[in-house]
User: Which sequence fits this backbone?
């Protein structure tokens, strides 16, 4: 498998000084690797791609399992200093979906869905700033896992979706080439303008829009899109509820 590392670098480096692209045959987790590097003071912008992850991680302590070639697994690390971090995962989801296919929906807050099945997951972690100043730039690690080819569904409640259902000829390298530059541009736009410019694009692709949902904290209601700070608006028996905690999971109910 050939990775278009040079083409990606040429598209991004002119507006992101010091940017590099690195492809590793194997690593535990691209997110873990960039977080380790940031703790050593390495905070240059980098796109780290793994052919195989031995301990891929998802949100809420879950695992991200993938086979080499079947899945695109990478993390983009760069320093960011937005006024507000809220809604970053939604901005990333919007960007990936827009770059890939009109039929992809975003499942708040971190997944891409195709016909109610998971196509991709996003895991964002930030390293605390050396200065300890809450307004200072932080190293953001944006990890993305996309199922490119169909994968086994053992142990999962719903069989995952794959990009080849939409784009039969896609492979991990081409997929990365399609999304890498838009992703960097979106992180730069998010740094300047926050989630607001992404809100309408999110709401147009919201997988939960106008659907009955149940939250892991026991709340139930109807989802009404994202607020301008990226909170999921859920209409419950007690009125409109803005769900902000990324520790809460949400699922549609039949
Ligand atoms: C989720 O579904 O909860 C998020 C999954 C994120 C998986 C990607 S794969 C590349 C990067 N490295 C990791 O360990 N996780 C992310």
Assistant:
């Amino acid at each position: 498998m050939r990775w278009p590392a040079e083409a990606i670098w040429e598209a991004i480096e002119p507006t992101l000084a010091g940017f590099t692209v690195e492809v590793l045959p194997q690593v535990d987790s691209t997110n873990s690797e960039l977080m380790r590097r940031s703790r050593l003071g390495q905070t240059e912008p980098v796109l780290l791609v793994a052919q195989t992850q031995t301990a891929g991680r998802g949100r809420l302590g879950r695992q991200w399992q993938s086979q080499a070639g079947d899945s695109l697994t990478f993390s983009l690390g760069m320093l960011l200093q937005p006024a507000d971090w809220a809604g970053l995962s939604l901005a990333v989801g919007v960007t990936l979906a827009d770059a890939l296919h009109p039929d992809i929906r975003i499942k708040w807050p971190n997944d891409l869905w195709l016909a109610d099945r998971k196509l991709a997951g996003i895991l964002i972690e930030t390293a605390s700033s050396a200065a300890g100043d809450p307004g200072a730039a932080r190293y953001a690690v944006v990890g993305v896992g996309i199922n490119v080819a169909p994968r086994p569904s053992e142990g999962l409640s719903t069989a995952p979706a794959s990009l080849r259902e939409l784009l039969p000829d896609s492979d991990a390298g081409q997929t990365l080439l399609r999304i890498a530059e838009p992703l960097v541009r979106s992180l730069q736009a998010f740094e300047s303008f926050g989630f607001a410019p992404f809100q309408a694009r999110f709401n147009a692709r919201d997988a939960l829009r106008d659907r009955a949902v149940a939250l892991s904290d026991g709340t139930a209601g109807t989802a009404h899109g994202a607020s301008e700070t990226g909170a999921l608006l859920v209409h419950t028996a007690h009125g409109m509820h803005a769900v902000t905690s990324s520790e809460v999971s949400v699922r549609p109910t039949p």
